[in-house]
Design goal:
By secondary structure, this protein is α/β, with parallel strands linked by helices. The protein contains 19 helices and ten strands. Helix 2 links the parallel strand 2 and strand 3. The longest helix has 34 residues.
Amino acid sequence: MSKSQFGMIGLGTMGRNLVLNIADHGFAVCGYDRDTAQQQRLISEGEGKPVTVASSLSELVNNLEKPARIMLLVPAGKIVDAVLADLVPLLQKDDIVIDGGNSHFTDTDRRYTELQNSGIHFMGMGVSGGEEGARFGPSMMPGSNLQSFNAVKNILESIAAKTDEGPCVTFIGNGAAGHYTKMVHNGIEYAMMQLISEVYGILRDNGLSNDDLQKTFADWNRSELQSFLMEITADIFLRKDDRTDSLLLDMILDKAKQKGTGMWTSQSAMDLNVPIPTIDAAVSMRYLSAMKEERVAAAKKYPASNSSSAIDKTELISTCKQALQFGWLTSYTQGLDLLRQASKAYNYDVNIAEVLRIWKGGCIIRSAMLNDLKKAYLKDIGLTNIIQSDLFVSALTTLRNAAAKLCNIAIQTGEPVAALAASLNYFDAYTRAKLPVNLVQAQRDLFGAHTYERIDATGSFHTDWK
């Protein structure tokens, strides 16, 4: 019996669909999962394809060509360590293990270091695109070293999503660069989704029906806002509820959950002193949404204002569109700035233009905006922030005014727009030559003798304020 060319540990939704994707591209795959029901499901769905199932880790390893190429798609954290503890003793020099889950980059760094001298290659790889992406073409972000990437490059390029610029996979950078980039991707995703929800809330509460909203979002998807998230949002408004006569969206409780990658992004940004307020606001709003009972009780004490009748709907839709463009651009801006600074701090050596290229297909945050963002980084390889790019000055100036206008409307009507307001304040602060934090420095020096800098001399100074 011929050996398989690739192994998969973890046959849940993502793992199973990636196995079928790999098999569709002519590679023989062997899968393993401790759950026998998952094993049987792969046998059923993989019928007629070069797919086999192992009943143990040792059987999986024995069924693979050498050097073995094995991917883990299991829950992040202790489970990854447990699987590695059982798997590594079965492996030989030059075998490669790919963690394709959403592992925290610090765990990936640790695992990479632990295996670095063993002769066994370890790669952390972010995978984006969800179930459909895994089955028909995801965006993949592998990090580690070029030797490890080259060992699996042919398979990854075959199964990746394809755009006019090639397969949506590239060597991201050293060590945990792949998982760090996926974490940033997810932080941007949080921000973009929160911004959509804020615009949806304003439009809904100002009289647009679900039909109106569906047409609006579908129309936006044929504009500068063309994107995966815009496409699926328009589709959501069409889905009827199986249990009632209502649309499904109207029956879904307003409590958002999360798996932690957005929080990791915020934590890492704080560690590196990089401001990402739009992403931070998106994370916080998920926490706030979970406080449903408290919100209901507070709403009885503080009735919402309502001045929607004075707002022209056509003008409001136009303002919302431009404000959403502004918010999305600042979300990308903040995430890419974090990635740039993390790459420098951790010696990842990430090529941001290449990251933007592979995000154009397969991944959740793919959008038409990525084309112009990529152009900006190609035009100026030393670009620190999209706001500094001459390609965006005119657009951001116009869109900023729409964002301010919509924030004004939201304040008057009591609509929470935390992410949009964070985007506006980030832009206004970044483009302001002088901020009032000289007062903060004076306060810090007065109560804690923390010193301050002067505008007319170099060095640190302290004053006896009393």
